[in-house]
Amino acid sequence: MKATILTLVLALGLAAAFTMNAFAEDKHAGHDHGKLSVGGDAPKFTLKDQAGKDVSLADFAGKVVVLEWFNEGCPFVVKHYKDGHMNKLASKYAEKGVVWLAINSTSGKSVETNAKVAKDWKIDRPVLSDADGEVGHDYGATNTPHLFIIDTSGKLVYRGAIDSDTSDDTSKIDGATNYVAKALDEILAGKSVSQAETKAYGCTVKYAKSK
Amino acid sequence: MPIDCNRISDSTMPTIARMPYKSIICGVVLTLSLCVGARAQEKNHVKAELISSTSAVSAGESFEIAVRFVIDAGWHMYWTNPGDSGLPPRVEWKVPEGVKVESLRFPTPNRIPVGEDLVSYGYEKELVLLATVTTSKELKGPIEIEAQVRWLVCKGVCLTEKQPAKLSVPVGDGGKPDDRFTGWRSLMPTPGKMPVGGVAKDDKNGWLLIRLDDDMQEPEFFTGDLDAAFTQFRKDGTTLIAEYKRFDTKKTSATAVLAYKDAKTGARKAIEFTYGYPAVSAGDDPVP
């Protein structure tokens, strides 16, 4: 029986080897988040914050930067804001020199709508407007929330979920593993990030069409 | 734009009462008073109801309970693994002593494209979850079951909605079965085995290779593993090739559902099985 299974596995493997090339090529046709890989250079960008001021990634050269894909209309984003968790987390690391930028790639959102949300949700860090989705596509941001960490040398060192609890339930945040905090602690301690990639959860980014 | 105000305020307000959420959304396009006015006429995009598999249950016997969701056109709900985004529905039961509701079973999901290149696993129009209910011999009727049902429903925007539901089942002999359950049960995947091989590109990426029976047409692969993304799958002869990326490299196996069209009957069927991730070979890179 064991031999049969082994043979089958080998046969399947062989069948796959023949088809791998073709398969590797057509993977770009569809769902491919692989444009930017963890460890690669973080794409540059300049976007307007909620005050209409240009903010560039280059402004923060030499600093650790967190990018947080944001959409106030998403219940999973609300989960992390309604009791102040996201603001607290960002402030905690701001004190340690970490820059935290929220990016709103939702189609139809503007500097003005971001200004309103930032005021009402007491967000004192930049909320950047990417309504045409260009930066979101460069980073392969698929979800809100979707978190990216860029290290002091400008390399992407984390991409994924904010934490391990994939529900929209705020009461579960405290019991979850916060992957971003864990990665930032490791970076600030001069270590490499142990869990550099996790599966993001939440809403999909509501990109403008035909991108 | 007023529609945004309607959609968001109704469903999310109860859970975020402490923040001025509605005013944020509405303030952008409408005055608050208009929003409040609009809110009174809103309703959920999904209706939930509880249904018993029998008109009466004998004490000590088990029966089934269905949670039936009727979903507004164009909106969708989610499987246990929602895919690239989303959240499955949840039910909090309140049952009398001596009654126990087992875990909910989900029907075979469908692939629902979201945006340009993302896929949700879920359901449109109607979703029926089933759970076995056990009763003790000492039970005296009727069995009053109450449930708080919560779900996420999406159509461009995503909304959390909730609804209380209840059901009373008389205790006694001679209960008549509800025929609809036969159809609902047939939508559930059947536990089984599938021959799965694989090629690992590295410890995170690779391909699963599933040998299909001859009568399995139009196969669809759904991973039950929340820590894995399957970016593509395709049929190559009698093999289904699914390209995966897994995030938790410590996990060596997971569950999956393979749905297909039965060549003989034309019916959609599905098998639920466990698969193992292929090990990375120490030597050659298996991918040319």
Summary?
The complex is a heterodimer of chains A (211) and B (288). Chain A is built from 6 helices and 9 strands.
Characterise this structure.
The complex is a heterodimer of chains A (211) and B (288). By secondary structure, chain A is α/β, with parallel strands linked by helices. Chain A has helices spanning 2-26, 75-81, 85-94, 111-120, 134-139, 179-188, and strands at 46-48, 54-56, 65-69, 99-104, 127-129, 143-144, 146-150, 156-160, 203-204. A five-stranded mixed beta sheet of chain A has the order 5-4-3-7-8. A two-stranded antiparallel sheet of chain A has the order 1-2. Chain A is globular, with a radius of gyration of 19 Å. The N and C termini of chain A lie far apart (51 Å). Chain B is mainly beta. Chain B is 12% helix and 48% strand. Chain B has helices spanning 2-12, 21-29, 32-39, 180-186; strands at 46-52, 63-71, 76-83, 90-94, 99-101, 110-114, 118-124, 126-135, 143-155, 157-169, 190-191, 196-200, 205-211, 216-223, 228-236, 239-246, 253-262, 268-276. In chain B, the strands form five sheets. Chain B has a four-stranded antiparallel beta sheet. Chain B has a four-stranded mixed beta sheet with strand order 11-18-17-14, with no helix packed on it. In chain B, strand 9 and strand 10 (157-169) form a beta hairpin. In chain B, helix 1 (2-12) packs antiparallel against helix 2 (21-29). Classes of the chains: A alpha/beta (211), B mainly beta (288).
What does the secondary structure layout of this molecule look like, with pairings?
The complex is a heterodimer of chains A (211) and B (288).
Chain A: H1 2-26, E1 46-48, E2 54-56, E3 65-69, H2 75-81, H3 85-94, E4 99-104, H4 111-120, E5 127-129, H5 134-139, E6 143-144, E7 146-150, E8 156-160, H6 179-188, E9 203-204
Chain B: H1 2-12, H2 21-29, H3 32-39, E1 46-52, E2 63-71, E3 76-83, E4 90-94, E5 99-101, E6 110-114, E7 118-124, E8 126-135, E9 143-155, E10 157-169, H4 180-186, E11 190-191, E12 196-200, E13 205-211, E14 216-223, E15 228-236, E16 239-246, E17 253-262, E18 268-276
Parallel strand pairs in B: 11-18
Antiparallel strand pairs in B: 1-2, 2-8, 3-7, 4-9, 5-8, 6-7, 9-10, 12-13, 13-16, 14-17, 15-16, 17-18
Helix pairs in contact in B: 1-2
